[in-house]
Design brief:
The chain contains 5 helices and 5 strands, in the order βααβββαβαα. The protein is of the alpha+beta class. The protein has one domain: Gcn5-related N-acetyltransferase (GNAT) (Aminopeptidase), CATH 3.40.630.30. Strand 2 and strand 3 form a beta hairpin. Helix 1 crosses helix 2. The mean pLDDT is 89.
């Protein structure tokens, strides 16, 4: 078993995490390796940097001695009023597990589970009543992992380019 530490991400980790997010996106899309555009790299660095100081967000890394950061997990908690469930104001908290990545050479060694335990603990401390995760239908590895943990599809999230919707509406 590879020894590792799960810890909060720090600013010095951010370039590696941006690289992980880019590889995750390519993995999901099946696209060939493509470097991020400088503008997108800067945007992701800024977003991750902001997350480091937001009390409702947590970014964790898996750190292997003599290797470095080989995995990450990101979660955030949000509040809503639950207006569909009851007539009076009730604050409901959910936690979104946004991104989890473990380098391919370090998978099946317990890093994913260790990261996830810490993320779920954070959500629980913040009072989140449920966990939400999104993954692409094409990402069979993610579907298998999340289903095994008890996550079930509860709806459909559809996406469209703004211009495509505008064109469709113009044709009506």
């Amino acid at each position: 078993m590879t020894p590792f530490t799960i810890r909060r991400a720090v600013a010095a980790d951010l370039p590696t995490l941006v690289d992980f997010l880019a590889r995750l996106a390519l993995h999901v899309s099946g696209a060939p390796p493509t470097p991020l555009k400088k503008q997108e790299h800067r945007r992701l660095l800024a977003a991750l940097s902001d997350s480091l100081v937001d009390e409702d967000k947590l970014i964790l890394v898996a750190d292997v001695p003599d290797v470095g950061v080989v995995g990450m997990g990101y979660i955030f908690v949000w509040r809503n009023q639950g207006i569909w469930e009851q007539a009076e104001y009730v604050e409901h908290k959910s936690a979104m597990i946004d991104d989890v990545w473990v380098e391919p050479g370090f998978r099946k060694r317990g890093l994913f589970s260790a990261i996830l335990k810490e993320l779920v603990g954070f959500a629980e401390k913040k009072g989140a009543q449920d966990l939400v995760v999104e993954y692409s239908l094409t990402n069979k590895e993610a579907a298998a992992a999340w289903t095994k943990l008890g996550f079930e599809p509860t709806g459909v999230r559809a996406a469209a380019f703004t211009v495509a919707v505008q064109n469709a509406l113009a044709d009506r």
